[in-house]
Design brief:
6 helices, 183 residues, alpha+beta
Length: 183
């Protein structure tokens, strides 16, 4: 399977970042033991370009403004649990935490993008909370929340949103990269 680094030139513009800035986020995730450390030298020696690894990198980009902020907030948000008083899993992705839900959206198992299928992801930068909005044909629409929102509404709430089109472009890049081999 190709390396995560080989996917960076394709997905960096979708985040409004340079390839180098995205690579530095990847290195920060390695230091946090969220991604595997390189075993050798070169682009093919580190983390593989899997939906799980791309999801972690996406979380790191969405939850922090810059590289120096890549800290435990990434881990807290990635593993934020699905929150619903009636269910223990996200009804759309079947995931119990945010990273797994985002991984599903980016995987080959997710439904292909069609005008009637819509997904967007919103992440709070001030607390470990995320939501996934979805609309599926012949199924309900709504959103799944991950993490517990602070009930105090008297403070600033900063959010990052990844719209459906960008999610689908990342997914397509990831799926196209799977057959490319190591770079």
């Amino acid at each position: 399977m190709p390396s995560l680094t080989s996917l960076l030139p394709t997905i960096a513009p979708l985040f409004g970042l340079t390839e180098q800035a995205l690579y530095e986020r990847q290195r920060a995730l390695v230091r946090m033991n969220l991604l595997p450390a390189p075993k050798g030298r070169g682009r093919g020696s580190g983390a593989e370009a899997t939906p799980e690894n791309v999801a972690l990198l996406t979380v790191a980009v969405m939850v922090t403004d810059n590289l120096s902020d890549t800290d435990d907030r990434v881990r807290k948000l990635a593993f934020a649990p699905f929150v619903d008083g009636k269910k223990d899993r996200c009804p759309w992705t079947g995931a119990t935490n945010f990273k797994d839900a985002l991984s599903f959206i980016l995987s080959a198992d997710a439904p292909e993008a069609k005008p009637s299928i819509f997904t967007d992801v919103t992440v709070s930068r001030t607390e470990p909370v995320a939501s996934i909005g979805f609309a599926w044909p012949k199924r309900r629409q709504g959103f799944s929340q991950f993490g517990i929102r602070d009930r105090r509404r008297d403070r600033l709430l900063v959010v990052a949103e990844l719209p459906n089109k960008a999610l689908q472009e990342i997914r397509v890049a990831l799926l196209n990269n799977e057959g490319a081999g190591s770079s």
